[in-house]
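Homework-ish question, so no full write-ups if that breaks the rules, but can someone show me the predicted structure for this set?
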Amino acid sequence: MTTQIARMLASKAKDEGRLCYITNCIRYLESRNLSLREYWQAGAELIGGERVGADAEAVALALDMLDSIGIRASVDLGSMGVIRKLMERYRIMDYKRLARAIASKSIDDLRKVTCDSKALETFTMLMTKRGGAELIGEVAEKAGCLGEDYEYFRSLYRALEAYGCASRVFVDLSTIREMAYYNGLVFEIFTPALGLPIGGGGRYDAMMKDFGIDTKATGFALSIDLCAKALGGSDVKKNNDTLKVYYREGFREKAIGLARILRGEGKCCTLDAYRGERSGILVGERTVLIESGEEYEP
Amino acid sequence: MSPDRQGRLIFALPNKGRMRDPALRLLESAGIRGLGEERAYLSKTTDPEIDLLSVRAADIPVYVYYGIADLGITGRDIVAETGLEVYELADLGFGCCDLVVAVSRESGIRSPSEIPHGSKVATEFPNVTKAYFDELGVQVETITLKGAVEITPRLGLATAIVDISSTGATLEKNRLAPIGRVMSSSARLICNKISYKTKYDKVEAITNKLKGLSP
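A: Not a homework solution, just the prediction itself:
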């Protein structure tokens, strides 16, 4: 959805805003691919804003959303900016092969991309270590660059501390998102209950620029199907509190009035004509609870 | 990955074929020995935190990708063929072979780029084969078979084959000549991406142990 949102905002010349969506997405996959072609996604995009603050907000919001439905998740952070800077530093041209080697943590594949011993050392460290912001410091020291990125990650962790979620966020620079439009922070969200990432996101300022707007943008998406799976299907909160409101002939409008009051109070209710049901609320001359016959007051 | 076994680790191994025995030996050297019947799909091991899953080598990337198995041993050629995203943590150094393009010795074709456009290529690796010839710029029709691929040029089903070869003896026996190498393969330790994160210490410990024991 990110591309479509970026295009929509660009066509309206909007360079600031916060958007969210829940929608079904359809993607093209080669026939050998076993994944679903249509899937449900919930996401949020933050356009504009200060880089560290916006990235921290996106990561924290994703974790908050999952907490609110009972999924305790963690996040791994990567950086497309770091990868590109290291490519420049070691004069590596073949991004596709390098990305494949990094994403599969395959040292064997990495050796086919570069023979430079320093590059091999740095990328091996990047692919095999997982930790906090200090990891960027270690890679920066080895590579002799990335000072700015180290500062960025330290600030990001301070902001995540303030959101109370830093202990669930790790740096793993082999985190690479499939979408080519990410140009800064990228992240994957996961939970031990599933073998696949439950969501992910990242920064895509460059794509906004491609659409003609010079602004910052970050966001994330969660797979609704995988959220349901992580909750184990039966654990998905079911709303058993739906009130069933029935009306006798000639009392439909009175029942609609009652339903509006109930819904206004945030309660769930359904309306139907009375056909001898044995439980619920019955609206007639009097409004009563069917089971007990007692008067019902909303 | 079922929540009831979050603390445990499932290790997928080939249930037959050229990689099974070396994989079992390697695990045994690392102190992990299966306790169940030999043909059992799922069995406990001498390490109380590890269970063994015995399935076809070709299916191991699928079990690992979906997190049913946390770790697995299978060929690099198989991982490439499935195209599934898994971590390749170590080259275990056995099961070495090449995936080669071969043609009938009488065909006069000396390199893959000389294979005429529209030719049929028989293989058990259709995805890797397609990617290879696409990159080469040669349009071929890929015929997927489940075995005995070497016989197809002689029977007129295919002009060339793409198949694994370790000594070249089977190609020789079927009067085939290798004319190109698609990729080199060997047994790899693969890992589910989420298991790597959520069971990091255990996965790292096993990886380091197996790396140290590999030839």
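Now go work out the reasoning yourself. Hint: Chain B touches chain A at residues 1, 3, 6, 62, 65-68, 76, 82-89, 91, 127, 192-198, 200 (CB under 8 Å).
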